[in-house]
Design a protein that fits this description.
Chain A: Pfam families: PFOR_II, POR_N. Chain A: Keywords: Oxidoreductase, Pyruvate. Chain A: One of its GO terms (molecular function) is oxidoreductase activity, acting on the aldehyde or oxo group of donors. The complex is a heterodimer of chains A (410) and B (389). Chain A is 40% helix and 18% strand. Chain A has 410 residues and is α/β, with parallel strands linked by helices. Chain A has two domains: 258 residues, 3-Layer(aba) Sandwich (Rossmann fold); 137 residues, Rossmann fold (3-Layer(aba) Sandwich), CATH 3.40.50.920. The longest helix of chain A has 30 residues. In chain B, the strands form four sheets. In chain B, strands 2-3-1-4-5-6-7 form a seven-stranded mixed β-sheet, sandwiched between helices. In chain B, strand 9 and strand 10 form a beta hairpin. With 389 residues, chain B is α/β, with parallel strands linked by helices. Chain B contains eleven helices and 14 strands. Classes of the chains: A alpha/beta (410), B alpha/beta (389). Strand 9 of chain A pairs antiparallel with strand 8 of chain B, so a sheet runs across the interface. The complex binds iron/sulfur cluster (SF4) (2 copies).
Amino acid sequence: MDPDSATAVRVAAAEQEALISGSEAVAVATRLADVDVLTAYPIRPYDTLMQYVAKQIANGEQDAEYIVAESEHSQFEIAKHAEAVGARAMCGSSGVGWCYAFEAIAVTPALRLPLVAMVGNRALDDPGAFGTEHNDALAARDLGWMHVWVDTAQEALDTTLMAYRVAEDRRVFLPCAISTDGAFLTHSQTLVKIPPQTWVDEFLPPYNRGDLRLHPDNPITIAPQVNEDWLMEIRRQTDEAMRNARGVIEEAYRDFRRIFGRGEGNPFFEEYRTEDAEVVLVGMGTLSMPVKVVIRKLREQGEKVGFVRVRWFRPFDHERLGALLSRFRAIGVIDRDFSMGSPFNSGVLANEIRATLYAQDRRPPVVSFIAGLGGREVTIPAVKEMIEQTRRAAAAGKAPADTQWIGVRA
Amino acid sequence: MARTISVEVVYRGIFQKTLAKNICRGIVLAARKEGKIGISFGRYGDSPERNGIPAKNFAIVAPNEEELQLSMAQYEPETTDVTISVDDMLCKGVESWAWYGLQPINQKVRDQGTLIVTSMLPAEALINFCHTKPTPYRLAVIPAIPSFSGLWVYKDDHTDVRILGALPKVCPELVSLDSIQKAIKEEWNDDLKVTSARRTYEHTATRTVRPGEGNPEVPFKFDLPGWTKMREGVTIDGIRLGEPIKFGDQIGGYRPARNPYFKKYTTRTMRPVIDFDKCIKCTLCWLQCPDSCFDVTPDQTYDLNAEACCGCGVCEAVCPVDNCVTMVNEAEFADNKSQWEAYKQDKQAYQAWVDEKLTHRPERSHGFRYRGQYQEQVAKQGVGPGGAE
Ligand code: SF4
Ligand code: SF4
């Protein structure tokens, strides 16, 4: 038997299937990762995670400290401190809840606490709005948190395991936010393969904080007053850790493939039908579903279209993504977020892509789209329209200067 | 053509914050009268809202905007024409944060520049506190007690204008007495203040401090680690376990390890003197000292680590025995040596030393303890009412 089919047999034999949502998949991953401390404060859609964890603990399936705080700020502080003493922790929130914890969120990277948090992406509460939008997680995009966007419940489970492995690597020790689109992922149940504990144990070593562990046997002071004589060096250390994360992510995915038998391709972005594509769309999260469906249909009609889904937003794989995207004739970037007053009035991703392409010799036109805000569906006709506009840019060799709002009532 | 002139005021956080600001404002406003341009600013990183912490304010005066910008492009001037120490105990050195090390008070004073100190001590005593310099500089002493006030209150005892009045005398290039007087009149509208400035101008004399004169100690300093060497995670070593204290054959007690990067003693204007024979070993000083300054001696008494003490006076306040822990003016001490060792070496001599020290209890403290204390002080020390000359 060749090694590949041996893995396949092993996979089929060992994994169990369950019908669970993306949040529930993250909850299962916290059980498999034997997370020590989970902190919670309810806000939709993140609360689906805390509910499922509570259920697992109540059912005797999971053994962990489960702390419901009085606010998101405390929730993140408790998780931070748990990480400081060497406990593996899970935290999370959504929308303005995530923002309320911002003081804790902002200092977590400098303290090098490998906290993993689920962000159930949610609009920032323009009265009561709870549909998905990526501005919550993106508010912390520059601070030293790793950010990954997933698009299926399976990927949510696998990525949570991956996140601990990468975050807790001594070369990294940075927090990681796993973004899961509200509703589409947090409230939809799909069939998910749950790996056996032995695989997870092989993949994920215990969290060892080493000389940075706060413990009576290792007397240290964490976070003393720092002023201008220190802060730049601290920032540079965080920067180095984030640079290191690129290689560590590669290693983790390689190991994951070896043990779990899935997760092919570049960890940082997924390529869908890009092989001979002339135009591609680029996006993050669950809008991948309608986009892929449209691309399949257009491919049947012989059109050379493809999709690139950015998975790891921080660290950003500018080298390979830039090399890949420079091959196409035009690129359409869909942002499920906004960045008011930014260059070209684009969302965040479009300008990251523009910056990435700047280092390339060939720079295809970039058409930027804003779509699906506040949880509005990115429909099949909308995707078609975006591909059509991108194709026009390819033909003209030039993109419209301004960002296109898709599916907005005039 | 006129050149850019830098003046530095070294002061104590909170207690002299307004004083330092007034002096620097006065310089710039007076220079403006002569068509010059200037800036007055505090060293932001000092965080001067901490009791007694050594902090700095600067006034830069330039002939024109371009020259001023040239100097402003570097936030803190490397050398000063005049450094003003508004508390004479700052002559022992300046340490505002961890890792700064000890900066001599005269560190920035240029060759032939001037150090002005407000003090009731003679120039010779002050020079003994100041670290030696390889180049000569001049010292001017303005007789005054340190003008300490609070965060919300300002003690208008003319210290500000007296220093302003001294400036045209020691550095005529900076500004004329006439301009200083005009600026004071405009800023305070107080003729007595104008007079105080002129009197100080008339009385101020300088004495040259030669290279090598002063405290020969090499001030402690540290190298700030680079990002590749620094411990990660904004983490520093905790205070390590300490060790017993040895004296002759005697071994016992406990001396904790202390932060080697932040000694803090330049914050104080007074320090505790301990009468070990009076100590009833109640532990209160040791427990209550906010900076863990006390070592447990093999006798089970408590010895001061004078490098760590910021002079807050809590130990004196909590000690239940009269005259057992007594705060004494910092000016009475030349070093940070162990009191307990001196006691062990010669108890009689130590007792005499304690008795002598106790005659120098601080009239000045961080603020005033009762109404009228300031008036009492000036009456006793011979400085005219309100500090005016
Ligand atoms: S004055 Fe006394 S209580 Fe205050 S720091 Fe010094 S030793 Fe400690
Ligand atoms: S507070 Fe006074 S009596 Fe008590 S241990 Fe300290 S020095 Fe001795």
